[in-house]
Fold this sequence. Notes:
Helices cover 53% and strands 11% of the residues. By secondary structure, the protein is mostly helical. It has one domain (48-201). The strands form 3 sheets. It has a two-stranded antiparallel ribbon with strand order 1-6. Strands 2-5 form a two-stranded antiparallel ribbon. Strand 3 and strand 4 (131-134) form a beta hairpin. The model is unreliable at 6-29 (pLDDT under 50).
Amino acid sequence: xxxxxxALLALVAAAAFVWLWHSRDAAEAQNIEATLKTxxxxxxxxxxxxxxxxxxxxxxxxxxxEKACEELRKLAKTYQFEDQVFIxxxxxxxxxxxxxxxxxxxxxxxxxxxxxxxxxxxTPITIVDGVPFLIVYGxxxxxxxxRADGYLEDCIKNCDWNRxxxxxxxxxxxxxxxxxxxxxxxxxxxxxxxDAVWLANxxxx
Length: 205
């Protein structure tokens, strides 16, 4: 009799564990979907902000690569969020050893003043001390741009998952990252005043 009670208790405990596990997964999925839907489209360049992308990248990394890629696949299938997937891919994947991590084929990029493609290996962004700055004002295109779902699958197949964890940063850290970016460009001729203002706006809330 005692053995039966213990077995029943074990089954109840196991069922409770499974329920809690699925509840946690459901809550996690809801949270990440809500986070992803706050991301500004990068084609609306004046609205771009770094912080929502840092938050989303960190949330996806916390899920683990497999689950994160499934969430990205869902996002990439929704036209409204294609822009955001390109940036997240550049944040969440890295080049394999001795291989290229190519930019998405979106057309001819219009970079910050006085800069060119070779200045920005992570086009359309650059990451400075964990801060993803948008460095493309837009694209000129003859034809159709690459789709986000295709680019994502290429990243999954040909790139490594980024093991460097993104962190939520205070304003001073973001300001220091901006100063570092501007100083690096100053050594190469500097940026236009409008460019500096635009980059500064990207780290405001």
